[in-house]
Write a structure and sequence with these properties.
The protein contains 3 helices and 3 strands, in the order βααββα. The protein is of the alpha+beta class. InterPro entries: Antitoxin_Phd/YefM, phD-YefM_TA_antitoxins, YefM-like_sf.
Length: 86
């Protein structure tokens, strides 16, 4: 890892980017204090695939049949200060 000042970084940006492409990290400093880091980008994850969890998740037929007392308890909790409507 090398450290360069801002003037050098502006003048030799192409060289610094070549170093980063080789896997090196470059610290850019102002008055000897690091202010930025040039490094290779993180590797991206594989793109999402619709249906990737098919057969792995089960939803009960009555998933939306929440009892009234559970709903009331939810709205009476500290998530909703008293006075707010459902």
């Amino acid at each position: 890892m090398q450290q360069v000042n801002i003037h050098y970084a502006k003048t030799h940006l192409s060289r610094l980017l070549e170093a980063v492409e080789r896997g090196e990290e470059v610290i850019i400093a102002r008055s000897g204090k690091p202010v930025a880091r040039l490094c290779p980008p993180r590797k991206w994850h594989n793109p999402r695939r619709p249906g990737g969890l098919k057969g792995k998740i089960r939803v009960e037929k009555d998933f939306d049949q929440t009892p009234e007392e559970v709903i009331d308890a939810y709205y009476e909790s500290e998530l909703f200060p008293s006075g707010e409507e459902k």
